[in-house]
């Protein structure tokens, strides 16, 4: 699912620079007034219209979400079904498995997930809490893997979901460690108050400086009441570059920061070591 969503995000970005035209006379336009001109741009809008909780969408729903003319949406959906990028579900459409298969071939994601997967399982079992791996993806943060099926599963981040940057531990960690890629001005318009404890725009810079100094981020009911989280960076084996975030979420009542932080840092170091081994193995003649 994570790979599928990343594929959609790439399609959406392809559309952003493929816009033009005017409304009226039957010409398709997005709700925000921007009209993709090419067939690929419109197909990208259709694929990107599916949200996290959408198992399938009707033609009417796709038309409303994309702003593309209904006849055009219908024609493109038929083409996408023929290409196995969409599947028919009665009068509805759902995403095709081919998208998932294509996304799995992304080399960076595949390598990092391979190095992290067994550690995620062990960490989730040791802490009795859901654990997630999230990676920067353009101007977003994408959860690409998660482990743990526990009593506080309701607070977990599901694989394939985009994370809020300003209210989650992985999001704030990413803002702090990649300031050039994620300038403060970018998340500010989207800084919706998730709870009464969500940081405001004037408090966020101070929080990011603190995160840079301590090399980890916390979320004490800033994203969801009753749940707290901790995130640490996963770094590259040679240059120490920030690759993503390992995070744990737990019910606030049973949240143990020192224990969780120690376990996360140990796992993160192990991921870096495994990445080095993988790179060395691939470099062998």
From TrEMBL:
Organism expressing this protein natively: Streptomyces malaysiensis subsp. samsunensis
InterPro entries xrefs: GAF-like_dom_sf, HTH_MetabolicPath_Reg, Tscrpt_reg_IclR_C, Tscrpt_reg_IclR_N, WH-like_DNA-bd_sf, WH_DNA-bd_sf
Domain IclR-ED: 98-277
Any one GO biological process: negative regulation of DNA-templated transcription
Keyword Cytoplasm found: no
SMART domains reported in the protein's UniProt record: HTH_ICLR (SM00346)
PANTHER family in UniProt: HELIX-TURN-HELIX TRANSCRIPTIONAL REGULATOR, ICLR FAMILY, HTH-TYPE TRANSCRIPTIONAL REPRESSOR ALLR
Extent of Basic and acidic residues compositional bias: 14-35
Sequence segments annotated as region (Disordered): 1-37
Top-rank taxon, per record: Bacteria
Lineage: Bacteria, Bacillati, Actinomycetota, Actinomycetes, Kitasatosporales
Stated name of the protein: IclR family transcriptional regulator
Keywords of this entry: DNA-binding, Transcription, Transcription regulation
GO molecular function: DNA binding; DNA-binding transcription factor activity
UniProt keyword Repeat, yes or no: no
Residues in HTH iclR-type domain copies: 37-97
């Amino acid at each position: 699912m994570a790979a599928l969503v990343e594929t959609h995000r790439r399609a959406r970005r392809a559309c952003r620079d493929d816009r033009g035209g005017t409304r009226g006379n039957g010409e398709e336009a997005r709700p925000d007034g921007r009209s993709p001109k090419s067939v690929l741009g419109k197909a990208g809008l259709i694929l990107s219209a599916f949200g996290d909780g959408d198992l399938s969408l009707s033609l009417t729903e796709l038309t409303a979400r994309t702003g593309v003319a209904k006849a055009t949406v219908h024609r493109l959906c038929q083409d996408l079904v023929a290409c196995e990028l969409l599947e028919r579900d009665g009068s509805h459409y759902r995403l095709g498995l081919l998208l998932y298969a294509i996304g799995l071939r992304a080399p960076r994601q595949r390598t990092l997930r391979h190095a992290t997967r067994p550690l995620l399982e062990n960490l989730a079992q040791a802490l009795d809490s859901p654990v997630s791996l999230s990676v920067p993806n353009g101007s977003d943060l994408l959860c690409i893997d998660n482990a743990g099926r526990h009593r506080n599963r309701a607070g977990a981040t599901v694989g394939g979901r985009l994370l809020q940057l300003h209210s989650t531990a992985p999001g704030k960690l990413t803002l702090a460690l990649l300031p050039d890629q994620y300038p403060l001005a970018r998340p500010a318009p989207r800084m919706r108050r998730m709870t009464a404890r969500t940081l405001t725009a004037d408090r966020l810079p101070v929080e990011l400086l603190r995160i840079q100094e301590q090399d980890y981020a916390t979320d004490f009911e800033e994203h969801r009441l009753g749940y707290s989280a901790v995130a640490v960076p996963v770094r590259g084996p040679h240059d120490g570059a920030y690759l993503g975030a390992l995070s744990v979420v737990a019910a606030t009542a049973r949240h143990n920061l020192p224990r969780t932080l120690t376990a996360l840092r140990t796992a993160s170091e192990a991921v870096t070591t495994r990445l080095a081994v993988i790179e060395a193995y691939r470099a062998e003649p």
